[in-house]
Amino acid sequence: MDPFERYAAQTRLPFLGRPEQERLAAATAVVLGVGATGSVVADALVRAGVGTVRLVDRDVVELGNLHRQVLYDERDVREGLPKAEAARRRLAAVNGSVRVEARVADFVPGNALALLEGADVVLDGTDTFAARFLLNDACAALGVPWVYAGVVGTAVHGFPVVWGQTACFRCYLPEPPPPGSTATCERSGVLGPAVLVAGGFAASEGLKLLLGQGERAAEGLWVVDVWTREARRVGLPRDPACPTCRGRHDFLAGEALPARLCGQRAVALPAPAGARLDLERLADDLAARGRVELRNSFLLRFVPADAPEQQLTVFVDGRAIVKGTDEVSLARSLYAKFVGG
Q1: CATH number of 259-338
Q2: In what order do the strands lie in the sheet containing 290-295?
């Protein structure tokens, strides 16, 4: 059987014949964040036949994800799987000819370059400004193009970043905006169909870049509101004073910081340097101090007896997500009390 038979409809396109399909098969794409937008992008790339698709995500599948995150189902919620692993499992069954890699990890300055190593393009599925500024710097350092895409409410925003050709994310926003100054999914919500539009845009732009057809990439910032049907393109010139474009990578030199998770009352705590936890032993230690709700090879989930409104999800690398609070100080205190450090 011809291995390219599954792509027959795709290769009838005038710009995507057999040679281009072979080029996709030799390419590597990284999807950074496989939540709402990222899961749509990853699904599209695997079905399109991109040879290696690496999925990077720090989070766990939750029931509240299912209305907009298309790779997951209720079984993933029950099993408490990390999104990267649940997505890998699903996509491996979709296209066995694609190498799907899962990286259950937080994207921080200390590992950013390693997580993106070998990528021909990076697709943005993150949900924080901190992650996007770091992604922009990391891709600049590696010389890898990337595609920004985001959804808040019913509005989709996106543009590709091609070094030396287009504006970068820091040309668009010179510095991260102050907390509370912009709309977020936590305050404004997210319409599920808008995510499909964002993911389709990002995947299409990513395929153009993988095929060496960057001249076809979208120019400027693309904005569409799927509810009002308003669409526009906003000019986005390169900033000659942009630090990133001039070779300065400030965000790569930073440190990993706790982050409030969009759409959740939760705080993500970064992994301590060099940490590697024995989850079985930790579960035994915690059993007398509360309820261990779940343990697998990736994580354990614990509800303290003296703070039942909080929940700690602790990963094998020492990271944690503390639910039931948006106070970083309380999240750190709970981690120190029950995990250590």
Answers
A1: 3.30.310
A2: 259-260, 266-269, 320-323, 311-315, 299-304, 290-295
